[in-house]
Amino acid sequence: MESEITKYLSETIGERLAGSEADRKAAEYIAGKMKELGLEVEYQKFKFVGWEITRKARLELLQPEQKEILTGSLMFSESTPEGGIIGKIKYVGIQYVIPKLFEWPKYAIVDDKGNHLGYILAHIDGPAMNFVLTDMGKDYGCAPYVIVGQEIHTYFQEKLAAGEEISVRMDTAGKHAPSLETQNVIGTLRGSALPDEEIIVCGHYDCGFESHGADDNASGIDAMLRAAKALVEKGGTKKTVKFVAFGAEEYLLYGSYYYAKTLKEQGQLARVKNVINLDMVGSGEFLWVWVAPESFKQQVADALDQSIKGEFDIQWNLELLPASDHWPFFEEGVPSVHLIFWPYEYLHQEHDSYDKIEVDKIEKAAKATTAIAERLAGVS
Ligand SMILES: [Zn+2]
């Protein structure tokens, strides 16, 4: 089974780093798909501060053996001097990258005087990947950072436990890219009875650098557009449903924050009754449903029972984490649900490509989304 939308976004367009030409093409493509469905389409443009990698992260093991280690870059990391920094590895604790989701072991690179020259984070659920300092560095200290995978973390642990010394050379460099522009793409299905009350169905269309962004998150955009088609074909809804493809999610949820903030400034945020967010629904082992507050769970559970009961192992998380575009709305008190198939070992890597996608999962995520949206917005 093929999926035209996921394939087009991840293969034909490919890497959609926010603010790039490919990112703009993806927005146009999504807007075109929304228009085909008869939705009212608008762009919400915004500027943001991005990041440019000038020297890709490198980590070279010097002692006890010499070898190159697969390493990922962190956007907003401090740069090392050209030629890198050299020091011994010391375990320093846990970095709470996204608490309860990404809690990663942290190693310092220490010089002869005991100074910390830089840090290595270990992504413990898979291989090295690219990521972002989740608060532009505030919690991290101004220092150079790189990411390694689980395998190297185990290697470090074993060697350190055996009392062996590990020394490395680390090199990374990047800089701010000011005044980049991107956009949120909004497709409105106007409500027949309660048009001023809104349900948002959303997902982000940008992706991290050097990735095809197939599962993260062409798959979510695909499921969102399938749900839009299903609701249009059912004859619409009583409340308004806004289908929003957010830009710059990989830049600390920039697009969804911009959207929520703009509504709040205009005194319109109370229109938004619920948010259904889709991020990574084309691979993974189980359907992980994050929903909060707890009083909102039953409606979601009933919709899942009615639409995809018995299809997948479903795991519930009765809290929302600041990991995707539901967050800026939930922070403002909007009951929200986030659908994700988890885990996905190719997250934020060049290997997040179309061949990893199981179209069946996207279709089922769309079915579940349609059922939740129907229950919340009411069928016309
Ligand atoms: Zn994502």
Task: Please outline the helices and strands.
Blueprint: H1 4-13, H2 21-36, E1 40-63, E2 67-69, E3 72-75, E4 85-98, E5 102-110, E6 116-122, E7 131-132, E8 145-148, H3 150-161, E9 167-189, E10 194-204, H4 214-233, E11 239-246, H5 254-265, E12 272-278, E13 286-292, H6 297-308, E14 314-317, H7 327-330, E15 336-342, H8 359-377
Parallel strand pairs: 3-7, 6-8, 10-11, 10-12, 12-15, 13-14
Antiparallel strand pairs: 1-2, 1-9, 3-8, 4-5, 4-9, 5-6, 9-11, 13-15
Helix pairs in contact: 1-4, 4-8, 6-8
Residues 204, 216-217, 249, 279-280, 324 line the site of zinc ion.
Structure description:
The protein has helices spanning 4-13, 21-36, 150-161, 214-233, 254-265, 297-308, 327-330, 359-377; strands at 40-63, 67-69, 72-75, 85-98, 102-110, 116-122, 131-132, 145-148, 167-189, 194-204, 239-246, 272-278, 286-292, 314-317, 336-342. By secondary structure, the protein is an alpha/beta fold. The chain has 2 domains: 4-50 and 178-377, Zn peptidases (Aminopeptidase, 3-Layer(aba) Sandwich); 56-173, Glucose Oxidase, domain 1, CATH 3.50.30.30. It has a 15-stranded mixed beta sheet that branches. β1 and β2 (67-69) form a beta hairpin. α1 (4-13) runs antiparallel to α4, α4 crosses α8 and α6 (297-308) crosses α8. The chain is elongated, with a radius of gyration of 22 Å. The structure holds zinc ion (ZN). Zinc ion binds next to α4.
